[in-house]
Amino acid sequence: MTLDPGAGASQAPAQGTPGRLNHSIGAFEPELGGVLNDVTLAYETWGELNADADNVVLITHALTGDSHAAGGPCAEHRRGGWWDPMVGPGRPVDTGKYFVVCSNVLGGCSGSTGPSSVDSETGEPYGMRFPVVTIRDMVRAQKRLLDDLGVSGLALVIGGSIGGQQALEWAVEFPDFVEKAVPVAATGALGPQGVGMSEIGRRAIMADPGWQNGDYYDTGKTPEEGLAIARMAGMMTYQSAPGQWERFGRRPAGRPALHKEFGGRFEIESYLHYQGNDLVGRFDANSYLYLGRAMDLYDVANGYGSTEEALSRVCAELLFVGITSDWLFPASEVKDTADKASRAGARSNYVEIDTLSGHDAFLKDWTELEQAVKPFITNT
Amino acid sequence: MTLDPGAGASQAPAQGTPGRLNHSIGAFEPELGGVLNDVTLAYETWGELNADADNVVLITHALTGDSHAAGGPCAEHRRGGWWDPMVGPGRPVDTGKYFVVCSNVLGGCSGSTGPSSVDSETGEPYGMRFPVVTIRDMVRAQKRLLDDLGVSGLALVIGGSIGGQQALEWAVEFPDFVEKAVPVAATGALGPQGVGMSEIGRRAIMADPGWQNGDYYDTGKTPEEGLAIARMAGMMTYQSAPGQWERFGRRPAGRPALHKEFGGRFEIESYLHYQGNDLVGRFDANSYLYLGRAMDLYDVANGYGSTEEALSRVCAELLFVGITSDWLFPASEVKDTADKASRAGARSNYVEIDTLSGHDAFLKDWTELEQAVKPFITNT
């Protein structure tokens, strides 16, 4: 691997995840206003950069993901990389061939600058004084990281959910830099049902007295209950009704109770409690607010005259992946975005994963996912 | 109208809604345990009871409804009866022909005994010491009211959502008493997605420090924010994704803000805030918990060997009404319940309302609803 981190770069291993590096991209101006004096992105890489620095794959993570897309279990990642079956030698994202980069998003809480970071001007965590950041901001920050790493172009950018929004935005924002883009389970703009579910989670966090208008850091009190409820609402949008019938049905809970009984307890409730509780231990509530808001606000047409005008900028070949039972980003809307890209002149493909897993399929239905994306990735 | 309220009955006009009466059905033992020493049901009637006391229609209301199914606006009901277009002279439920009864459910907060009622043993409101009540309990309480009113049988029982669960339960629990039953937008048992959404609302209420384990009455503090969030989660299940695209899309909010801006505000968010806020002013949070739990717990098979065994008890002719875009009680599951009733030997019919209105269609798509149910009601 040959890296030229550039003059302004500072690299130091981040804590908790071996192999994770921190890199400063300097000052950053989010598109909706405000300024961040010094933005750090945490990232990981796999494989070797070639001499032309163009064998690069960027993996963009989803809402509560992070840079640890691949690799084995570690202290922070008991189950290993969140996309590990997709990334490695001989896998769809082949680390024998590609130099693979995954960075924690701007606004996140796993090493990259976000609301829990200390504002150097005040010496205090940003909290809700952190500027609103968008999918485009995340992509622009990633571009600065790649530039500093000496990358000359992306052979592929791929991700699911808000990672899929980033993949699409990459192709629109930096058309000459991207050869292929694979937005999985993502559209040009989230629908009102998704925005509504997102808002339920936000209100739950903000209504929690532990939230304290976002200034809960170092108070010994956090919006745990609110974040857990937000996660529960999120989990509902990641699964499908038939999938939940199959997995949970109306069976009584088997797990230990996290909350008081009230006329019995269903497995689905117990599962939601568990998932809510699990996120509280590993994710910052303010980051959850900011990243969810970025998902809601994203519209590929933002800043252009129309969706078509935005999509007409694309030079990359696109593969949109829809999931039949997805209700956060319904397959019909993913296909509609793919069709719009075609009509706008892009080389746009669409493939559908037929599953009951819902939106979550991109994080678990490995065989189907590989079948959907591998031919597109390997076809040169 | 000829009424024999029976020896134990006490009738007095309830406050707030002209025409609403209170009736004591005495002590009541909910099926899952506990005892209520003195249960009052608030109810309203329209039309005249005939000499045989068998021209009776019972209307069963949904989660946040009450006895005011029909009639004009009053102080408590600015928009009039919640099913007014369905009930009146010449309307599908014809008050020129039928004696129509609608009572607020056991566990409710609009005159009937519920968690906000004072427990005569302690002199304090029940709060969460109120026993868990079921759909079957609601139906058994209604039966006692009808017996006291001298009603000899139901020509029809009809309702939507948990009102539909009650209509179905009536036909199973009191097979000889019911001639026709019309469960609208209801199945034999709610699916895990519905239970999960319900649990999100419950946790939001219970996490609100104003809830105080249910003992918030007379403390000057109520779980307003939690109840509003629960209502928002409920509203999501009452609408459909395509319906929300049509009605709200991604349009910015036009209403005054009830909550702080955070990177802009969408119409769907503003609508949810409004709906949440609106319920807070008119509904008791503990009642919301109990009635939602009754919806979750209802399984027509409860107490029988199977769904089929339960449905084989039915003597009434059934009409199940499904709503194509309903995701709380999906049309396919309503149809499945209708089919199971047929296979169990019941005279079971199924009709579908094709609409984008979602679950809420039974409270707004009047023309379609009338077309769906009127032929069945008037066919003798």
Automatic annotation (TrEMBL), chains A, B:
The keyword Cell division does not apply. The keyword DNA-binding does not apply. Pathway: Amino-acid biosynthesis; L-methionine biosynthesis via de novo pathway; O-acetyl-L-homoserine from L-homoserine: step 1/1. It catalyses: L-homoserine + acetyl-CoA = O-acetyl-L-homoserine + CoA. It is found in: Cytoplasm. GO terms for biological process: homoserine metabolic process; methionine biosynthetic process. This is Homoserine O-acetyltransferase. It comes from Rubrobacter tropicus. The gene is metXA.
